[in-house]
């Protein structure tokens, strides 16, 4: 499961004074758990677009502080610019990136809007997915009249703010806060210099379509092929080519690979060729994963490969490096945020991990090794699935093996995360025990922290047991229908899975005495006992099967 990640892209009505802009971005960067990705200041528009990402609550706090900072340094009574605007913080959208739903993101936007109205005295209008009233969801409709017209507009009953005062403050103006889908700017390259031909492809694929004459000679709209796509053709002098320039406004409706293939189809029908593509700005990791899976499956190949190979497949298939090298570390949002310190063990080499394990430090220890054994079990099962999918004798069932390989990759990733989570849980226990215990309040705080840390130190190995048990489903499927030459690989996977579950159980049991809640202690113990027994029995049966299969060639004749 991906960690919850939200992007925020507030637009501030200041694009000329670097000190004021810096004052706002400093407020954002002061919040722990937030990464500032981009600051795009426009002098003519007198507007700055800021992009930052992080955990939901961190992003919410950073957005509030930024709006408060903008109120301090921007006086709308003196603002002039080419872009429509209605406040110092003109618009503040929240965008779900991973591990969080749109509804949860919309609720986050509403919480920030309520706080801005209540604490800062700024009128707040909700828009897009955060706005329950469909007549007030469109940003351009809300902003109509702009700053100058809002002194009267806000008095109209139908334009009462969702939060904050009913009077329009001259200094700060009003703010629009909402939740929307991630927007991807994606350009497809054509083997032509003709803008007219590029536009023809754009009109085919975009939702708005094109204007045509019907049989009566009247102009009507012929819809395009793809929903949630805006597109236009243009010429790029720097590269001497025409492009179809697209905004993909909802990747859940039209993913990037679908938009690419639609352009390929349209271009081919018009005697053109797509030669590659270009991604402007950032893209979520999931979009690249999906593209990689899509193109592998078109080749009738297993999509249960590593994340690195999925991305490489997507880049090759869409020609994303034609105009400039596509660097995943710079173009994928999650990679821009990735910090090796957040998962230090999972990023170590095998030699470095064993060296760290052999040191005098008590962590990493058996709990992390148990999780790693589970990851190895999942990796072995996945390997067998991928190998079998590519064998000629099994290729008619390649999709079945591909599905198992994808499940195996998910298990592998989940268990790798638990390698570090187990060590972090151990340190949580140590840190809670180091808290002061002088006053009754300090003692209570310390005891509560110890109990919370102890529960975590029990729940993490329980997760390892659950995930380790799930790897047996994959391994059993591969023993029954996988490549016979890989029986020993699946057998080693079963041994790893059993050891992972047994080792994790030991970590559950050793932490149970520290839990004061007897009922919860009993529930944890029963859960561990049940999982351990199930895995022991099942692994035993599977290993007997491995012995039969491995011994068979040596007993014939």
Q: Which keywords apply here?
A:
alpha+beta; Alpha-Beta Plaits; single chain; 17 helices; Formiminotransferase-cyclodeaminase, Chain B, domain 1; 3 domains; Four Helix Bundle (Hemerythrin (Met), subunit A); 13 strands; 557 residues; four-stranded antiparallel beta sheet
Average pLDDT metric: 92
Helix run count = 17
Strand content: 5-15%
**Helix residue percentage:** 40-55%
CATH architecture of the largest domain: Up-down Bundle
CATH superfamily of the largest domain: Formiminotetrahydrofolate cyclodeaminase monomer, up-and-down helical bundle
Helix-strand sequence: EEHEEHEHEHHEEHEEEEHEHHHHHHHHHH
Give the uncertain stretches in residue-range form. none
Largest sheet: 7 strands, mixed
Spatial extent as radius of gyration: 28 Å
CATH class of the largest domain: Mainly Alpha
The oligomeric status of these chains comes to single chain
Overall morphology: flat
| CATH fold call of the largest domain | Four Helix Bundle (Hemerythrin (Met), subunit A)
User: Span from first to last CA?
Assistant: 51 Å
> How many structural domains?
3
**Structure class:** alpha+beta
The total beta strand count reads: 13
